[in-house]
Design a protein that fits this description.
Among the domains are: 14-27 and 37-206, Rossmann fold; 438-535, GMP Synthetase, Chain A, domain 3 (2-Layer Sandwich). Helices cover 27% and strands 24% of the residues. It has a nine-stranded mixed β-sheet with strand order 2-1-11-10-12-13-14-15-16. Strands 7-6-5-3-4-8-9 form a seven-stranded mixed β-sheet, with helices on both faces. The protein has a four-stranded antiparallel β-sheet with strand order 17-18-19-20. α1 (14-23) runs antiparallel to α2, α1 packs across α3 and α2 crosses α3. The protein is globular, with a radius of gyration of 23 Å. The relative contact order is 0.09. The structure holds adenosine-5'-diphosphate.
Length: 536
């Protein structure tokens, strides 16, 4: 064996601070409203924050939580906390008090940074979270009451009153310290309590480089990146770190997910790249024509399957499809990115639509494989054979924070995703369904995702979710919950007629239930568990 003679420099998030200062000081971060700061200011605040964390005696390795929407102070925390060897724990602001308390307690958060408008959602839990030593309020334009309590401090005052940390943050890391924990994110977990995924500096920076790889997401200096996906949803899919490494401008939309707000921000800032879950893209659809979105070069949709009909509707209206991004909290989160390759350039329209509908190709350094659900053998990569998707790579979790036993990993250390998929001869992965969402009718499987795509292709359908209803004869039967576009008079019979030629006869839902809205999870995805509960 011969060891290479290259510098064993660690991969660390601290690198971003100095890079922003030296290369991209003048580039900007815009938050909803009129606030605009430069990366020079963001880096300066991050350096002051480093001193604040020292002054508050926050130990190295301690978990520092955030309870905030996408804004520039949150971005400063993204830098300062890991760059000083503390661990950034982004809390989901839509969790129930019970889950929130469980997670803060389990993570043993030392400090919580909370956006002022969100105080009423978390402060009632403060009494039960006695381990949290400081609650630091990020000012916003809300007038929510700030508790008069010695534990409560003001972010802007602390930052303004602290001297910026002067040293080189990156040099404070020894080679092996690239494996130190940098971030913590809890995944909802379908069974049992939420589980913490503990990112390292190395995994975060490699994932970050992955988001810069051309031909996939390919964040570049010329981009204006708008993560609509919350900064607590798996680090906003790595986009803030990616944008900072590339020197791209950032647009952070704040707490509102109002379609008009998001679209006017996109138009005003000439956003080139935006990312959100499909339910958000659906909500923007009716107002797309009112805004100039000609600056866009890529729209990412992920966290749940993007129906081809939704993606094609965007292509027709803004000239861009929704590009699939497949991932999981455990995968940092991006594992695969959709889109065509050079050889598809002259391909028939139908083939191109089909390729774009796939979850896509694995990111560099990410390995994907299938495992037969019954006997564990590896099905052929023929684009037809289905198996459970398993994933390995340097930004894939190897375990959960403070969880001993788990069956989430294979004996050879691959992550079991719980997703059912095919992989074709060119490495494209297509998700068939999540294992728990499949419907077993008369001993045969029905893919809820495919059935939803068929129903969603009706022009009057705004949203749809298909879940299983227990059935004495067939075991389970599909039930479709549908939200119609405003003013539509489409009936269940119309929908059945539309779907009939698209799927097998026995796949036709037993019932179409019309709803004004569909329930959503904490990360804004359709909540099938809530629908299953009302279906049983
Ligand atoms: P949660 O289980 O709370 O939704 P994650 O946000 O980590 O947690 O979700 C990961 C799951 O989301 C994946 O296992 C997959 O089922 C689904 N998913 C993510 N991206 C896509 C996508 N592009 N297409 C289809 N499903 C997706």
């Amino acid at each position: 064996m011969l060891t290479g003679l290259m510098q064993p420099r660690p991969l660390t998030i601290a690198h971003l601070v100095e890079r922003l200062e030296q290369l991209f000081a003048h580039k900007t971060v815009a938050t909803a409203g009129t606030e605009r700061v430069t990366y020079a200011e963001v880096a300066d605040h991050a350096r002051r924050l480093a001193t604040v964390l020292d002054d508050l005696d926050v130990p190295v390795g301690a978990r520092v939580a955030t309870f905030a929407s996408n804004n520039r102070r949150h971005l400063e925390l993204y830098l300062a906390v890991p760059a000083t060897k503390r661990v950034l724990h982004t809390l989901n602001i839509r969790l129930s008090a019970e889950h929130l308390e469980y997670i803060v307690d389990h993570a043993e958060d030392d400090v919580v940074f909370v956006e002022r408008a969100l105080l009423p959602r978390i402060w009632p839990s403060a009494e039960r979270l006695s381990r949290v030593r400081h609650w630091i309020v990020l000012p916003d334009d809300s007038d929510a009451a700030v508790p008069a309590d010695p534990r409560v401090l003001d972010y802007d005052e602390l930052v303004a009153g602290a001297a910026p940390y002067r040293g080189c943050l990156e040099d404070a890391f020894a080679a092996e310290e690239e494996n130190l924990a940098a971030g913590l994110c809890y995944t909802s977990g379908t069974t049992g309590p939420p589980k913490g995924v503990l990112y390292s500096h190395r995994s975060t920076m490699l994932h970050c480089l992955g988001t810069l790889a051309a031909g996939l997401v390919g964040i570049a200096e010329s981009d204006v990146v708008m993560p609509i996906v919350p900064m607590f949803h798996a680090n906003a899919w790595g986009l803030p770190y990616g944008a900072m490494l590339a020197g791209a401008a950032l647009v952070l939309p704040g707490p509102s997910a109002e379609p008009e707000h998001l679209l006017s921000l996109m138009a005003r800032e000439r956003v080139t790249l935006a990312a959100a879950v499909p339910t958000v893209w659906t909500s923007l659809l009716p107002r797309l024509d009112d805004h100039d979105l000609s600056g866009l070069r890529m729209l990412l949709g992920g966290g749940a399957a993007v129906p081809a009909s939704l993606s094609e509707a965007y292509r027709a209206r803004v000239g861009l499809p929704l590009t699939h991004s497949w991932g999981m909290t455990e995968v940092s989160p991006v594992g695969a990115i959709g889109g065509t390759r050079s050889r598809h350039a002259g391909a028939a329209e139908e083939e191109q639509v089909a390729v774009r509908a796939a979850q896509g190709q694995p990111m560099p350094l990410v390995r994907l494989r299938l495992s037969d659900v019954e006997d564990g053998h590896e099905p052929p990569r023929d684009g037809r054979s289905i198996g459970e998707l398993q994933v390995a790579g340097p930004w894939v979790a190897s375990g959960y924070f403070r969880v001993e036993a788990t069956d989430a990993f294979t004996e050879d250390g691959w992550l079991r995703t719980g997703d059912l998929a095919t992989i074709d001869g060119e490495g494209y992965v297509r998700l068939a369904d999540r294992m728990k969402d499949l419907i077993k009718s008369g001993g045969e499987w029905i893919s809820s995702v495919e059935l939803e795509a068929a129903i969603a292709s009706h022009p009057d359908v705004a949203e749809v979710a298909v879940v299983a209803r227990p059935d004495p004869r067939w075991g389970e039967r599909p039930i479709a919950y549908v939200v119609l576009r405003e003013g539509s008079a489409t009936s269940a019979d119309d929908l059945a007629r539309h779907v009939s030629p698209l799927v097998a006869r026995w796949w036709l839902p037993d019932e179409f239930v019309f709803m004004p809205v569909l329930p959503k999870t904490g990360t804004g995805k359709l909540s099938k568990s809530a629908l299953r509960a009302r279906t049983a």
